[in-house]
Predict the structure.
Amino acid sequence: MGAFDYTALDSKGRVQKGALEGDTPRHIRQQLRDRGLVPLTVDEIAQRDKPGGARSRRTRVSAAELALMTRDLAMLVRSGLPLDEALSAVARQAGKGRVNKLVLGVRAKVMEGHSLAGALGDFPHVFPELYRATVGAGERSGNLDLVLERLAEYTESRQGIRQKILVALLYPAVLTAVSFVVVVALLSYVVPEVVQVFDGVGQELPGLTRALIWLSDAMAAWGIVMGLGVACLVAGFIYLLRFQGPRLAFHKALLATPLVSRVVRGINVARFASTLSILLESTVPLVEALRVGAEVVTNLPMRHAIEEAARRVREGEDLGSALSHSGLFPPVTLQLISSGEASGNLDKMLGQAAAYQERETDTITSVYLGLLEPVLILLMGGTVLIIVLAILLPVFDLSQLVG
């Protein structure tokens, strides 16, 4: 039995969408006809989420929805409910939305005899490898409820950090956009009107005013071209980052930039340590955990350093020592990892390292953003002041001539 996503017409000609369980698409169409609906499309939910499926129709859920679904499933499994019944209850709880379709798709695979981790593998765009590997370890160890609870906490934590960064960047982004609009408006509309006043006077304009007039004329004549040029440069840069070589060079540059490097390093180290902690706590072998943990690190040099560390660990070297060769990981994190290896509590020490790194990154980010806001205000004020001075200087000179 599988889960199918359908669209159909009711007796009033309205489009109805939803998900049903059945053996074949033909079976689903018959169920729809029995309900008085005219089937339009019937698609197997799991099939479209596979790598070769139609990308536009892949199931997407938010991090908050994934965390809530995981927590509900953990609670039901802990209560002793069979897995298929727990999944059915989660689907009903989710209503008729995308989470309902997703959970029904997973349940259909479980009913066919697949493990939960194997069923999740049909939805790689919703359940990352970290999620699937952790669930698989929980099934093997018999601690699926605890693993699911830990995954829910992990997902919520990642979502909280993401929201915190977005909120912190909102004000500087708005301020920058407003500053840009104000300057463009002054150069495009105010300056040309003021210049007309001095056209018939025959007065030699100050250098600052002439420079401003030149910039205003350039924007009027070439503004669209310059805008398209900037857009092409940004698009070209984003396109280049799709390739391994340019992306690696850009990531190395980020690690070499004094202020940016601490934030980039901190975010990636916290993400890696937290991921490795949950994997080891779920009894995933260290080498396998390092392979999965490397995938959540977005900075390529750091990812390569973790992959090299995994190779050294496979050969018998300690994790702390293996990570220290790259010089990319903070000494405190390495010390906590070494301490955890010596005491046999590596998963707990990694959790502490992740929490410490997250606190430090939050503090650094808050300081940087706190400094950025007044700097942006000063830049905006300075730019407007220069424009005003360029306009007023010839007025002062003219008043002196008249006097």
Observations:
- The chain has three domains: 2-56, 63-156, 161-403.
- The mean pLDDT is 82.
- The CA atoms of residues 191 and 216 lie 7 Å apart.
- The beta strands are 2-9, 15-22, 38-44.
